[in-house]
Amino acid sequence: MSKFEQEERVKSGIQTGFIGLVVNIVLLTIKLIAGLTAGSVSILVDAMNSLGDTASSFFTIGGFYVSNKPADREHPYGHQRAEYISGLFIAIIILIVGFQFLLQSINRIFNPMSVYSSGLVLLLLIISILLKIGLGFYYQHRSKQMATQSNTVLALKKDSFNDALMTLVIIASYYIEIKFGWYIDGYVGAGVALFIIYSGFRSILDSSDDLLGTRPDVQMILRMREVLDSFETPIGYHDLLIHKYGPNKVFATVDIEIDSRLSLIQAHRVIDEIEQEFEKQFNIKLVGHLDPIILDDEEQNKIYALVKNVLKTYHSNFHFHDFRIKGNDEKKEIHFDVVVPTDVVETDQELHYKITSDIYREFNEYPIYIKFDRDYILDEVNKNKD
């Protein structure tokens, strides 16, 4: 994403937050009037939910504003994770509001009071549903317009449609209580509060995942592999690692296997071309690590083929890399890394014994040293590719 596109994304996010702020203030006012007029705790719970949504809009504006600040001495990778932090604050507010009104709803259950019949209350609640549905569609439209998906805006969209549904349930309960005289206001308020609490917990988990780091998008990984496979010079690649510092701030590293007979200048040129292609296609800063592979050693090629055949007898998705025969003629050692599929249940120690035993049946002249990796990203990519 270009700097202009990023600025447009932030501008769109701030405008979205401002529109949400205005609408939620109107909704808060409408629901407070309706709740106080009807004497209904469930409607007041819904009003406080709108108060939480108002605070969410404030944090949305602040999150997008801070995320656009350039990198500085204290934050060399920029400030885009501020968008995730704003989402976490929003979730905490939702959770606090939910707990507060759960207690009030429980008190209403044990101390029931009749609600007051009012056509104005029904009218105000219907208006609030229409406003919230309209706001949800507005968030959806804004999200599609953004160059990169915003989890914050998507969460606001989902919350808006959920709020409209909750208000519809409250209207139904209000009508039932007036019509039949059943004291269900407290129960409905408790139900709405529990739903708010659940939404808060889910939002906290989602925001925490973004801050902790989640699995990269599988389709993106597949596209990256297609780009790496499109270059003829590299023999292979491994250890593709992706580091995300915000929706549009992504870095990656990869080990690129190059024929050791190429000059350093030739090998460097190949890695430069791959890094430039990644930035062009994905706007990702890729750092390629040169991994020279010896192809003109008959003994090494023989052992390499042996290791490959042994691993393939265990599982089709077993892979290995960084294969080396180290040392001199007097003392040589075999070294390589094995990528273990996540559905393999054996421990590293068990696998080490099994692999070395099978290799030694065919070749036992050198000691074997193995490192084990369990690549959850690669496993998911292979499943989708199959």
Automatic annotation (TrEMBL):
Domain Cation efflux protein transmembrane per the UniProt entry, residue ranges: 18-212
Membrane topology: Multi-pass membrane protein
Gene Ontology MF term list: monoatomic cation transmembrane transporter activity
Listed SUPFAM superfamilies: Cation efflux protein cytoplasmic domain-like (SSF160240), Cation efflux protein transmembrane domain-like (SSF161111)
Record key words, sorted: Membrane, Transmembrane, Transmembrane helix, Transport
Domain spans labelled Cation efflux protein cytoplasmic: 222-292
Membrane-traversing stretches: 21-45, 51-68, 84-103, 115-139, 182-201
GO CC entries: membrane
Places the protein is found: Membrane
Keyword Transport recorded: yes
Similarity comment: Belongs to the cation diffusion facilitator (CDF) transporter (TC 2.A.4) family.
NCBIfam families (alphabetical): CDF
Name of the protein in question: Cation diffusion facilitator family transporter
Source organism of the structure: Atopostipes suicloacalis DSM 15692
Lineage of origin: Bacteria, Bacillati, Bacillota, Bacilli, Lactobacillales
